[in-house]
Design brief:
Protein name: 6-bladed beta-propeller
Number of strands: 29
Strand order of the largest sheet: 1-29-28-27
Organism: Acanthopleuribacter pedis
Largest sheet: 4 strands, antiparallel
Number of helices: 4
Amino acid sequence: MLFGSCLFLCILGLPEGTSVGLYHPLFPAYFAEGDAGSFYVLDRREHQVRHYAKDLKLLRAFGAMGQGPGEFAFPIGIFYAGGTLYVEDPTFFTLFDAEGKPRKKIRKPFEADWYPTGKSWIAERRYEATGKWELLWFSYDFEETKVLHVDRDTFDVDGVMNPAGRPVPSALSKDHRWLAKAEKSRFHVTVFDTHRGEAVRVLEEKVTPVPFDRAWGEESVKNIRAMRKTMSPHRQSKNKGAVFPDFFPPILKVAYTVDDELVVFGLLRPGQIKPDFVYDLAGRSVPIKGDPDPFIYKVLMKHEGYAYLTLEVDEEAFIYKVPLAQVPAILEDLDKP
């Protein structure tokens, strides 16, 4: 599939891909859109950030392994906002200016999934012992905090599996200004302003419940247990059974596209989801333009009539700059088996 895709790109007469030398495939967490069409790429293997111009030329590389100023260890993500680049590792956020000069280091208060917004912090914290899941807001100085949402992960409690028990992951807009959180039991999506830590709107739609497929559920539980046993052969599983709901959850996923449209995904059939509704940043419902899911992972940004796409080859990623008009045909080719 990938060889055919590269060939297709060459036929279109696209510029030669620029290897960014990643040890892991390039995902949006390792990419940040900068100023004037430039962008930053996180090189996790070399513990560096590479800053590229909009024409794909390398401007500079900065960072090093360590815990000192301008250093980070085993980085897991980058984000750019308001002239500041945030590099996240398991313990710190290391801050740089737009040219890569170190600014300061910020230690995370506790273990969680942390997201900077440029003016505040969002944390997703899960308590393993109880399955409690919290969505938290912190002021930029960590002096103020709010609980935005509380849920419980009841997918596997004491060996009893509940296929409808896992919370729906939240979604951040491209600039981390807007945060969407869906209820797992009904069609109810709350959008938060992350700078203020306040809910700005609630999205609700009428949906037709899809009856739960018990045969599919039993097969899924069987496969999950077999996989866990393979990964941890010495782990003793209680295998008490499974609780199957009457209907599938009405929302299985929420995600912002590269154009900052919020897509709410429902179920097409067991194991496959579909975009049910799409909203703009003002909360207005907008038409669904086919399946926008590929855009979330393959189009990194858009600037002045061009799209910047990523292709993965073995352990390296290549970024291509292509005219926007060619994107649908390229993505369609990439998705062919």
